[in-house]
Amino acid sequence: MDVKTIACALVAACTLYAPVPSPAQTTTYTLSAGNYRHLLDFTECPSGTCRNFTAAMKPGGSIAFSAPVTQDNKHRIRSLLESFDFHDGVESFSHGDARVHVSDIQAFFQPDGQWGGMRIVLLKWLTGTVPHGAHPLNSSQADRFTLLDLGGPYAFAARNYWCAELEPGAEKACRSWQGGSVDGADGFSSALAPHQGLWTVSVAPVVAPAPAPDATPVARQPRQAGRESPCRN
User: Of 107, 121, 177, 196, which alpha carbon lies 20 to 30 A from 138's?
Assistant: First the structure.
């Protein structure tokens, strides 16, 4: 096989088998939970941001990933996260809010590999700035936050917790907290939905890239005798 034949074969192979990149499919998971039924109202609230949940409220929202979450990639679910927007009836928890921290996120699957649901735990600081204050016994030295736990056994929201201990190396994460009258000067409210809620999944359609605009057509010159394509047999 001569050099000319090899070169023409390579050009043909590149033309026929060049890989076409497929655009990423943004996948959105939306949670719809029931109304709160088990309510614990503030009995005292000497500090922090106090507001009770009501039976007319319910948590919900959505979270988007750069690709569908599967059994194979669930261990790196945080790296796929693009955005989220949830609410507890009082506060919103948005991806771009510097006060919001994702404490936990997990995806679950059925034994046959089918989607089984997701749990996401969100924390939103109500007081203070980074670095936040924390103390196990003295609420006056600790910053307060609201907590939203979705997709677990129940949908749960709690407001005005104070941070007892920060997560080492994580400036916005609270490892443990208090909600009772540990120091005799504290109060909080909470709400519990009767079930974990229902997740629905939607995948953004793949949009093919628009073709490049055609260049101004150039008149084709008639082939001159004796001038053949170097790859023409």
Answer: 121
d(CA 123, CA 132): 13
- Nearest alpha carbon to residue 135 among 163, 161, 169: 163
pLDDT digits (tens, 9 = 90+) for 133-143: 898 878 788 89
| Residue 125 in tokens | 């600081």
**pLDDT for 41-64, tens place per residue?**
887 776 667 788 899 999 999 999
* pLDDT tens, position by position, 134-170: 988 787 888 989 999 998 777 889 888 889 899 887 7
Does residue 201 sit in helix, strand or coil? strand
Q: How far apart are CA 224 and CA 211, in angstroms?
A: 32
Distances (CA, A) of 116 to 47, 89, 111, 124, 151: 40, 25, 9, 27, 10
Place of tokens 């055609």: 214
DSSP state of 119: E
**Strand runs labelled E in 110-205:** 115-125, 144-150, 156-166, 174-178, 189-192, 198-203
